[in-house]
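To the wet lab folks,

You asked to see what we're planning to order before we commit. Fair enough. Below is the target structure as tokens, and below that is the sequence we designed to fit it. If anything looks off to you, flag it before the synthesis order goes out.
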């Protein structure tokens, strides 16, 4: 919901922030979510309202982007607004989910995460667009854990910021020297916001790159070369109800460790391997007639490319992306059904993706398409033109990395009995939600400090079928379980 209420404008949104803001206002992308599972380490202590308010208040004080609103978000001149007073009661909620088992609870938690993705932000000129919900199961025996959902407007933060938020929240929960808690926080002085991405990163673009990119996007269609269209489920359709579905896949720490070791041996990365496993599932579940071609997109964090002196710990949007097209011979080999060939092809595909990501990382921030966003005069018109068009990618895979914390989870606490920390984190689940004008399937990858790897599938209901998602999830789980038992992905 937009607002033109008067308020102190802090700075105009940068191009990628405006890209996000326009999507949110149009209702075609609503929030990013990172959920972490918090355990009491040394007792049955719980995160109650007082404990959370105390820790969260200090995080908000340290993070300027958590205390701003958005002015004129229905225009291409949107700006961040100074919020002088923030009531935590408007941002924090607690929920107990009745359930009979941990599996049932995890399913209900995924449904709840999808619900948060579907909500619109209200009064964003006067209220920072983020929220926190503490969720726990109602079981016969105490669970000893609580999940904290952190949902946020993408103009404020990116996925990596969601991980950084939880890392800082855990530190503050374990900070016993400052237990005071207040519900209403006041900020009479405007915050110093971090620079927008285009100011914080020293982008450079060759003339040829600028001309080629803008021509491919805006040149007359009859004069542009027609690129093949990858398989992408249903085309972009703004009339489809915005309903996000979430399906997490948990890979135990021991299995994830084996996969990482094998990735190093094969000179690839976990991101590259998961792309290859997704391609293997797609290729074997979709025929050559209906899906002759696939393309994926991978967000890339720009934090390593910040200007000297910039604070990489601040929550903000700092992201680029890489499109990967898969050679027809790889897809045909995966469809061949020959086990030795399949395993070889999975590793070669993983190496291909890793090589492309490494090459892109070595050239950044030169010739990066996000640096040309400033040439788009009207983002609302840009997205409206996509309604009814085919999607350009088959899936998106975003990896926000490993949760970093001095105190890990219950298993780690047992190894360090001298620790006086109160809480640890044992699971991290990251989702982008339904992307109406983007890839039909999203995969959010995140690793907890104890090694648990969670791959969370997200999709817009009816854009791909539930059976297709179930097949993809079952394939990914079968691949990693088989590798754990045999050292191979295929039988």
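Sequence we intend to order:
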């Amino acid at each position: 919901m937009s607002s033109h209420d008067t308020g102190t404008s802090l700075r105009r949104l940068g191009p990628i922030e405006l890209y996000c803001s326009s999507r949110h206002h149009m209702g075609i992308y609503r929030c990013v979510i990172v959920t972490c599972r918090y355990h009491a380490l040394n007792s049955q202590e719980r995160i109650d309202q007082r404990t959370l308010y105390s820790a969260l208040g200090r995080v908000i004080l340290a993070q300027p982007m958590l205390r701003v609103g958005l002015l004129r978000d229905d225009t291409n001149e949107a700006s961040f607004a100074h919020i002088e007073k923030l009531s935590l009661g408007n941002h924090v909620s607690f929920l107990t989910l009745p359930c009979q088992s941990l599996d049932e609870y995890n399913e209900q938690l995924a449904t709840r995460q999808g619900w948060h993705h579907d909500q619109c932000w209200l009064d964003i000129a006067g209220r920072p667009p983020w929220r926190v919900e503490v969720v726990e199961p109602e079981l016969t025996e105490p669970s000893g854990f609580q999940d904290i959902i952190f949902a946020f407007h993408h103009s404020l933060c990116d996925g990596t910021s969601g991980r950084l938020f939880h890392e800082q929240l855990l530190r503050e929960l374990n900070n016993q020297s400052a237990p005071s808690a207040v519900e209403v926080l006041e900020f009479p002085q405007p915050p110093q916001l971090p620079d927008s991405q285009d100011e914080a990163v020293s982008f450079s673009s060759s003339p040829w790159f600028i001309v080629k990119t803008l021509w491919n996007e805006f040149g007359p269609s009859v004069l542009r070369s027609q690129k093949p269209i990858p398989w992408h489920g249903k085309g972009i359709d703004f009339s489809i109800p915005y309903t996000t579905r979430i399906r997490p896949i948990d890979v135990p720490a021991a299995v994830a460790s084996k996969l990482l070791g094998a990735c190093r041996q094969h000179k690839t990365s976990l991101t590259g391997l998961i792309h290859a496993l997704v391609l293997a599932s797609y290729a074997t579940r979709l025929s050559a007639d209906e899906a002759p071609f696939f393309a994926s997109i991978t967000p890339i964090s720009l934090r390593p490319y910040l200007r000297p002196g910039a604070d990489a710990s601040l929550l903000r949007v700092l992201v680029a992306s890489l499109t990967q097209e898969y050679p027809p011979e790889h897809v045909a080999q995966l469809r061949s059904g020959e086990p030795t060939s399949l395993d070889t092809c999975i590793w070669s595909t993983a190496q291909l993706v890793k090589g492309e990501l490494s090459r892109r990382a070595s050239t950044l921030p030169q010739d990066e398409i996000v640096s040309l966003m400033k040439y788009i005069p009207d983002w609302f018109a840009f997205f409206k033109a996509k309604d009814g068009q085919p999607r350009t990618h088959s899936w998106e895979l975003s990896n926000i990395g490993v949760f970093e914390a001095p105190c890990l989870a219950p298993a780690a606490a047992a190894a360090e009995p001298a620790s006086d920390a109160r809480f640890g984190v044992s699971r991290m689940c990251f989702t982008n939600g339904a992307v109406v004008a983007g890839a039909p399937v999203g995969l959010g990858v995140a690793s907890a400090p104890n090694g648990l790897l969670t791959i969370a599938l997200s999709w817009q209901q009816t854009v791909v079928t539930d059976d297709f998602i179930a097949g993809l999830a079952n394939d990914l789980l079968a691949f990693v379980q088989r590798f754990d038992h045999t050292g191979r992905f295929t039988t």
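Structural context that might help your review: The radius of gyration is 22 Å. DSSP finds 13 helices and 16 strands in the chain.

Thanks,
Computational group
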